[in-house]
User: Fold this.
Amino acid sequence: MSQIILPKVWHVPEKDITPEEVFNNRRHFLKLMGFATAGIAGALLAPPAFAKNAESKLAEKLFAEKPLAALPQIANLKRSDDYSTRRPTTYESVALKYNNFYEFSSEKDRVWQTVDAFNPRPWEIEIGGLVEKPGKYAIDDFIKTFDQEERVYRHRCVETWAMVVPWSGFPLADLIDKVQPKSNARYVKFTSFDDPASAPGQQRFANLPWPYTEALTMDEALNELTFIATGIYGHHLPRQHGAPIRLVTPWKYGFKSIKSIVKIEFTKTKPKTFWNTLIPKEYDFEANVNPDVPHPRWSQRREKMIGTGEIYATQKYNGYGEFVAEMYA
Ligand SMILES: Nc1nc2c(c(=O)[nH]1)N[C@H]1C(S)=C(S)[C@@H](COP(=O)(O)O)O[C@H]1N2
Ligand SMILES: [Mo]
Assistant:
């Protein structure tokens, strides 16, 4: 993969590429009010009733102490060499201070400073909808039932920044195998937490359609690349990366990779999703990385690695075509 250095044409100021338009657009706002009331009413986390084991106790303690305190290492991590990134891994110190997480802040370099009140332990995850084995699980017990694997993936935000990070967790297909969706399930919907008391962005942007939601078709959900991350750089996810559990779909724009999941549901009809509901013309449901389809407000031809500032040509499906292209043929 040849690296293209084109600093002169690289001019996408950060303030132009955040969805600020949303907040200034009255029509969207009116639409939002309706969604916001319905969404928030139904989505508050129930008080968790967790099984206590040594591992989750340690995790709870560390998460309760400090956001950037040493996080527990992932045990029995099998490192996968199947997915070459052909680019250097992003420094951890960079990745954890540059995040998109609107529940906390719309400023990427400030998210990490706004997550202290958020507590990803204890945490409960619910599996529901069209599924044979619905249930609610304490997060660490749930995670333990899957073989933990590390995969280094490229990540491409719709805003044109990119990174390469080692996620750890398990394929979503393993989870699906376990919970057995019914034959009429066609989509998988993911829902993030809704707790303005611990998430300043949910207070500040109270009119957005919280909780954050995303969805995949069943084919996409079963694709071997589709990953549930519970760790990054060999340890548990820090809050700003979506602790305690998030989705990673490396061939799609980053907004599909929903963080801090509380619910996974199997549905017959196409679910409404957060950005697609807000601005459908700018954030389509499929959201596959594609240099040939410009975002209405900027080109998608190039991308910039956070930390080093290296510029690369954007690759179709973020370079993962061999794994995913046939789903869209
Ligand atoms: N719940 C939630 N998930 C989210 C977002 C968000 O605002 N809220 N932002 C998305 C976007 S736009 C990107 S690029 C990635 C960023 O992940 P990172 O901060 O771990 O790099 O998270 C995605 N998942
Ligand atoms: Mo993003």
In short: The radius of gyration is 19 Å. The first strand starts at residue 78 and ends at 79. The first helix runs from residue 14 to 17.
